[in-house]
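Now produce a polypeptide, keeping tokens residue-aligned:
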Amino acid sequence: MPFLIVIGVIAGLSLLFVWYTRKIWFFRDPDHLGTEQDDLVLRSPVYGRVAYIRRIENGSVESEKKGERILISDITKDDWPDKEGDGWLIGIAMTALDVHYQYSPMPATVCSIRHHAHGRNLPMFDLWEYVRITWLRRGVQLFAKKYVFENERQTMWLKGKEATIALVLIADKFVSKISTFVKDGDSVPAGGKLSFIGRGSQVDVVVRGQPDLLALVQVGQAVHGPSTVIARLRR
């Protein structure tokens, strides 16, 4: 009988943990109202872990894994102006334990919000990658995996004083919905709330027309939303 009681207590605590994680912890909303409004820095738009940092040259990114150059438009699903062909790509993976709101990396105006549907989303991680990034809190290399190019996404273009950037919200296999809180033409401060992604996902930061950007984070590093400066722009 005592053994059954112990099993029951463990099962009850496990269910309580799952409920708390999915219904309360998952929807936590930290306050970023005091974020400094600096036009020359980019703050992380999400909580998560840096998955990759790539230089964009002539509208494409080099993939060591595939041994070829990949068009940045394959990620944004938007045209890439030739005259602004250089820039940077920073991918940030989010897990079920991270805050799932997205924030503006800089003071900006929302230029456009485009949703790109896909018939079947692919999973972001295999089992070991999921354990490593979610529970061991370690980085994993995700660039050039098929989901980066094929999964459903929402691309949000933001124009600031010193740069134009895109936030590409890439859905995981188990994403339920993306809720957006802004519209075209809205002005948002650095750290202003933009959207919310249900379950796990990834956000790619595409910086256009800034070939000399200085990245201030490394692959595998944890980022904490607007509290983390991920890059410095040139004027």
